[in-house]
């Protein structure tokens, strides 16, 4: 008998199918790891900004109206900024969307005696969301600051808290874990 050495077509197809299943499982886990990594970056950057805001407050006696002088921050006519004050040379943006983090200076007139800082996380099950301030939208923001936002808001990861395409998106009542805004106050 003369047998040919090699694999049959069926054997090759089975091996390719197994490799495909394994590859999809690995890619799924890598996607989750990237998402968690971006969330960790967001949390770290918010804490860096919070520390810089505390230093700014100690030097100036109040908080800045905006984080930086850019139109995309939503500040209509700010005169004080964290960026350029000699504390933080660059204010980081979201690692995925490159959108600035949500910030509103709280106070009356030009006296900014508080702030609300937030970022929308991708992982709705992240335990850090339980430690957020969950601050409501305060109607008293400083003159020149961006609009207030709710700390109990839902937005796609990387978007501004309480905003999706510029429209307010409160937390859906039907989903208990829908909050994605990790927010900080002084």
Mean pLDDT across every amino acid position: 81
Q: Helix tally?
A: 1
How many discrete domains? 1
Spatially, the strands of the biggest sheet line up as 1-2-3
Order of helices and strands: HEEE
Largest sheet: 3 strands, antiparallel
Total number of β-strand segments?
Answer: 3
Describe this structure in words.
This protein has 186 residues and is an alpha+beta fold. It has one domain (33-184). The chain has 1 helix and 3 strands, in the order αβββ. It has one helix at 9-60, and strands at residues 102-108, 111-120, 181-184. The chain has a 3-stranded antiparallel β-sheet, covered by helices on one side. The protein is elongated, with a radius of gyration of 23 Å. Residues 164-177 have low confidence and may be disordered.
In short:
The protein has 186 residues and is an alpha+beta fold.
List keywords for this structure.
elongated; 186 residues; three-stranded antiparallel sheet; alpha+beta
